Amino acid sequence: MARILDGAALAAAIKQEVAEEVGQLATRGVRPGLAVVLVGHNPASEIYVRGKVQASAELGIHSELITPPAEVTTEELHALVAQLNARDEIDGILIQLPLPPQIDSKSLLDAIEPAKDVDGFHPVNAGRLLAGRPALAPCTPAGVIEILKRSGIPIAGQHAVVVGRSDIVGKPVAILLLHENATVTICHSKTRNLGEVTRQADILVAAIGRPGFITPEMIKSGATLIDVGVNRLATREEFDRFFKGNEKREAAFAKRGSVVIGDIDPRAFDLSGAYTPVPGGVGLLTIAMLMANTVRAAKMRRGFE
Ligand code: NDP
Q: How far apart are CA 38 and CA 211, in angstroms?
């Protein structure tokens, strides 16, 4: 029987630890502060941001939600970032992506003070991560490592195959796995014979953005499957391809008109040794790691670690 790596339980444990750290910082007169910038009205972004603000409140982290209108200019956002960089009570600055098309997102993310870059997207943090120096690591990749470690899944010496090479997931996950002494292979859209490579994986991380892309034939029996993908199935045809006859999913589809699926075909999970479900896996760790990064930023900026 494949073991389910329960994102909710792991996220709760991390949040508990973060809350304890917040309590310890309070005894030193420090309250970590997170500024979340949400531009315009993207419904998915609004849900993510609400989760981040709520988690901050639960853990005793000060948070500020700043909501510039959709027509805001790059210059105005640069002025906002400069203000947040200068404010000592703000330890973390998060600009919710995607930004409207008129905004130069790269220049804006680069303008965030690296010490406050709790998303870990700044090139300085990416470089530090690569060089094995203390860095704020991107939240989702850091969450993947926490899942493996806290579940007692060995990483050192294992062959980890990462499918996807984005700057925010694939590449940093691969670097973090390398730092944990895995033998790492990174695959992407130009990889030849992908299935041959993925079948060698002891740990397979899928960060592709294609529903159920990794099929049962592409995995080794007993492998650990980490599914980062979040995709929506919104048509009956798509739904039936993966979930026909699955009562729980049928009920969700009837209620909401869509269901969420990862990048791994759920039928592959049955062959695995352990896997992260979607929903209920990696996604839940992302906010927990953002909270951990905010507390870490507060400590690092004050020389506490
Ligand atoms: P990107 O679109 O930036 O990257 C996708 C990667 O997948 C690329 O490197 C691409 O290769 C590779 N890829 C695409 N098609 C294929 C293929 N046919 N064969 C092999 N590789 C392929 O996506 P992200 O990294 O931002 O996100 C990946 C997934 O993770 C998405 O589903 C996203 O929603 C989810 N996600 C989940 C988060 C969470 O908290 N759970 C957080 C962030 C993302 P190439 O570089 O060659 O184009």
A: 27
DSSP, collapsed to helix, strand or coil, labels residue 204 as strand
In the structure, how many helices (H) and strands (E) does the chain have? 12, 11
User: CATH homologous superfamily of domain 139-285?
Assistant: NAD(P)-binding Rossmann-like Domain (3.40.50.720)
How is residue 169 written in tokens? 């997931």
Per-domain residue ranges of the chain = 28-116, 139-285
The rounded Cα 50 to chain-centroid distance in angstroms is: 16
Give residue 210's identity as a one-letter amino acid code.
Answer: R
Q: How far is the CA of 108 from the centre of ligand 1 (A)?
A: 22
| pLDDT recorded at residue 1 | 85
* Spacing, Cα 52 to ligand 1 middle (Å): 22
Whole-prediction pTM: 0.97
- Active-site residues, by number, are 52, 96, 119
The order of strands in the sheet holding 224-227 is 3-4, 274-275, 224-227, 203-206, 159-163, 183-187
